[in-house]
């Protein structure tokens, strides 16, 4: 088992984030509040409760450099929280949305953040010193449905989005008053704000989590059809491949290195994917399992197990395989995992520790330091 810490904070957690020094944890207990805890003498103590939103908070991100917290909510608003003395003070963000804000993420330089929404719109927000508020420029009429996830490229300009229209898109977010000219890269030097750089139509179902690799050379996103998609050489001629699995769909994804990815979702157990020397991605194993039960390419799911119990079917009756590829039951999480956060150093090319939270109210810290079978991929 790779899990080293398991903490249950609430009945349900919608999202979570860590302070820059990892000493404090912020999460939403499935309501309109943000609870901030700290570890004191081996016990988690509640420090603050941030109350400003009117509806469920859908996204939290804690900036590593400036120590600011940004939140997004179904109330169509977003706030940037600054620690002044012992109090967290909110600053309103002008989003101009008519539907729920669904996700939020700081850019690598933390001079912008992106908010995805149910209004088929992405808001790129930046601070106006004169008025002491955060304003937004909107990327409109590019998505055909809700934007479920956003991910910043390391160059601070390109932004990837996943949407329930089944597509993953990459946009330029260059804002003249914010981004210095030297920050422009070759791939985005001629792109104006909101320009569509690339559209990927790989998924035939809702697309959820999306993430860039540490170098920005590879993009991964997941769909509701139990598939994960990898795109290399993002540009005019991208190289795309997908990995299908028999278990329940993933909700989010995280690169641990250029060749190692963890996906989390409805199966309540993080899934590890890795690329070989040729760059071919494949499923490796579940993180919560104690041993790999088979070397075969297929394996059963919790849902399949439920149907076998209901209809009294033997395990081998579900497929043509002669071996039993079912994975062990009894995972660390007891319900859908909807959030995964790295716990490595900002800007590091590899992440050995990360945390997950889900609808079971748990926050689990995973450590891969002693996972010998995965060390070759770091």
Automatic annotation (TrEMBL):
The keyword Nucleus does not apply. PROSITE patterns: WD_REPEATS_1, WD_REPEATS_2, WD_REPEATS_REGION. GO terms for molecular function: actin filament binding. InterPro entries: ARPC1, WD40, WD40/YVTN_repeat-like_dom_sf, WD40_repeat_CS, WD40_repeat_dom_sf, WD40_rpt. It is found in: Cytoplasm, Cytoskeleton. GO terms for biological process: Arp2/3 complex-mediated actin nucleation. Keywords: Actin-binding, Cytoplasm, Cytoskeleton, Repeat, WD repeat. It comes from the Eukaryota. One of its GO terms (cellular component) is Arp2/3 protein complex. WD repeats lie at residues 50-91, 140-172. Its main location: cytoplasm. Component of the Arp2/3 complex composed of ARP2, ARP3, ARPC1/p41-ARC, ARPC2/p34-ARC, ARPC3/p21-ARC, ARPC4/p20-ARC and ARPC5/p16-ARC. Functions as a component of the Arp2/3 complex which is involved in regulation of actin polymerization and together with an activating nucleation-promoting factor (NPF) mediates the formation of branched actin networks. Arp2/3 complex plays a critical role in the control of cell morphogenesis via the modulation of cell polarity development. Belongs to the WD repeat ARPC1 family. This is Actin-related protein 2/3 complex subunit. It comes from Rosa chinensis (China rose). The lineage of its organism: Eukaryota, Viridiplantae, Streptophyta, Embryophyta, Tracheophyta.
